[in-house]
Specification:
By secondary structure, the chain is an alpha+beta fold. It is built from 19 helices and nine strands. The strands form three sheets. Strands 1-2-7-4 form a four-stranded mixed β-sheet. The protein has a three-stranded antiparallel β-sheet with strand order 3-9-8. A two-stranded antiparallel ribbon has the order 5-6. The N and C termini lie far apart (92 Å). Bound molecules: protoporphyrin IX containing FE. Protoporphyrin IX containing FE binds next to helix 6, helix 13 and helix 19. It holds the Pfam family p450. This is Cytochrome P450.
């Protein structure tokens, strides 16, 4: 052998690498906050992030943001990220200097299934689209339809289904049930069709599955470099292959709805006032692609958010029976005034009746504080700026705001911030709701891009939760892991298995 040292080379390189990394580790642990993960050369905190991916939001809140004083800058390769949950920074990003922090081109690429719609645009197109959405969502006919659909779905779909499951002592996955309920509700509101996914035979919901895939693969697109997922998309491999199939299902479904409407042979919901599609279908500003993207955005806005939140409400109520008792105490006087109807064994409240229920609303807000359905907001940076916390951000940096972490910050919510305590939302006498500014309670976003469906969502969730709590005892099955999916939504990974008991009244 002419060069025996060559055989030793890989071992030498390995030893050298270990020594260099060891020295780097010692150096960085002296210069860095020792409570934070090591910031390795090139890969940054990626190794620590990868190990903790299964508990991502907890990791961000308690391993990254808490020890760093609520804001942190790090880099992965050439990508510079500013992560924060500091309300002062949030107010700066979402309101005071919001024009410097648009969603950006990369966000629009990630959610290409909704390209061109309000969800993905900034600046003037955003202002224009917001005006249109506001007009649609406040139109008395759309609001009327939403109320009727919600009432009908709960009365004729949810309650009989739950009564059947209680009678047969069957196990129910409340996560799946709520997702089906809300899917049906929004399909009726947007397209005017009853998809009947909440029925005893529990049909497969391809469109809902496709929506979940969009959010799961979008999450991957957020965390891998853009060039990598774009190559995978071009080659049609890995998660991109799954996404392409899901996008096709979604586009096909919406196009089918549009075509049926144009042919005027859609299935009409009884006495339908006016659904969302009918506000757009003859509008020349919306070509087919934009119309599909807009309808998909409505589906995401309503179905994904309410469908993700309701299972967490039920989970928190099942874990806190005293909260259930307080809700029933609040419901009792209203229900006692309702005339009893012969043969009707279940009671539900109408929109007007739930409006004044502050304790019930406090339970929803408390759930959204701890389990926001959209746990992270992403923004881009237009020009160099200094955050109120003193951190400098530069053009093309990524800004990530952890909504999940804000709700668990002691400095904002007090020492009991990790407890589920609806009372924190109520005035001393318990009669009024306390206001929390949106830069501290970010579940519905903040600033000029505040959620446009907040009031609708709260009303609908109140109607659903009041009906469940009044008519049923819900018992969570022991020993089930409650984890979250890796997704842009805070969805439950393994469902929420419960047993139901019909309450005797
Ligand atoms: C629990 C229920 C809901 C929560 C927590 C919620 C939360 C949010 C959040 C965080 C955003 C900002 C998303 C982003 O830009 O990345 C948003 C935007 C929006 N939401 Fe909601 N939402 C809910 C329900 C609804 C409902 C039921 C509707 C309509 C039927 C709706 C309509 C919208 C619209 C149109 C936007 C876009 C606003 C814009 O980009 O300027 N939301 N919502």
């Amino acid at each position: 052998m002419a060069f025996p040292f060559l055989q030793e080379l890989p071992v030498s390189i390995l030893v050298l690498l270990v020594v260099v990394l060891g020295l780097y580790y010692i150096k960085s642990s002296k210069s860095q906050n020792p409570l934070l993960p090591v910031n390795w050369p090139v890969v940054g905190i990626l190794p620590s992030l990868a190990i903790n991916l299964h508990r991502l939001h907890h990791y961000i809140a308690f391993d990254l943001l808490s020890p760093s004083g609520h804001s942190l800058k790090f880099a992965i390769a050439s990508i510079h990220i500013f992560l924060t949950c500091d309300p002062v920074n949030i107010q700066h990003i979402f309101t005071l200097n919001h024009t410097n922090y648009p969603k950006g081109e990369e966000f629009a690429d990630i959610f290409d299934v909704a390209r061109g719609s309000l969800f993905t645009v900034d600046g003037e197109p955003c202002r224009r689209e917001r005006t249109n959405y506001q007009g649609v969502l406040s139109s008395p006919r759309v609001v009327g339809l939403m109320n009727t659909c919600c009432r009908d779905k709960v009365e004729k779909g949810l309650l009989p289904f739950m009564a059947h499951m209680a009678l047969t002592n069957a196990r129910v996955d409340m996560n799946d049930l709520m997702m089906r309920l809300v899917f049906d509700l929004y399909a009726m509101t947007i397209f005017g069709v009853d998809t009947a996914r909440l029925s005893l035979d529990m049909p497969t919901v391809h469109v809902a599955d496709a929506m979940d895939t969009v959010m799961e693969v979008a999450f991957i697109r957020h965390i891998v470099p853009a060039f990598l997922w774009k190559v995978m998309r071009r080659l049609d491999i890995g998660p991109e292959r799954k996404l392409a199939a899901a996008q096709a299902v979604l586009r096909c479904f919406t196009m089918d709805m549009i075509m049926k409407r144009r042919a005027n042979d859609h299935v009409i919901v009884q006495e339908v006032p006016m659904d969302i599609l009918s506000n757009y279908v003859n509008d020349p500003r919306y070509n087919d692609d934009l119309l599909k993207a807009t309808l998909i955005t409505y589906m995401i806005a309503g179905r994904d958010t309410i469908g993700t939140t309701l299972p967490w409400v039920i989970y928190n109520l099942a874990k806190n029976p005293h909260v259930v008792s307080s809700i029933r105490d609040e419901l009792a006087p209203i229900i006692s005034r309702k005339p009893s109807v012969a043969g009707v064994t279940m009671t539900m409240l109408d929109l007007e009746e739930v409006k004044a229920l502050v304790y019930l609303q406090a339970t929803l807000l408390e759930t959204l504080r701890l389990y926001p359905p959209i746990p992270i907001e992403r923004k881009s940076v237009v020009t160099t700026d200094v955050m109120p916390s003193g951190h400098e951000v530069c053009a093309r940096d990524i800004v990530l705001v952890s909504i999940y972490s804000i709700g668990r910050m002691e400095s904002v919510w007090g020492a009991d911030c990790r407890e589920y305590r609806p009372e924190r939302w109520l005035s001393e006498d318990g009669r009024q709701l306390r206001h929390a500014p949106s830069h501290k309670f970010l579940a519905f976003n903040s600033g000029p891009r505040l959620c446009l469906g907040k009031d609708i969502a709260i009303m609908q969730m109140k109607i659903v939760v009041a009906a469940i709590v009044w008519n049923f005892d819900v018992k969570m099955l022991d020993g089930q892991p409650i984890d979250t999916k890796l997704s842009c939504l805070l969805q439950m990974k393994n469902g929420l298995k419960v047993k139901l008991n019909k309450r005797e009244m």
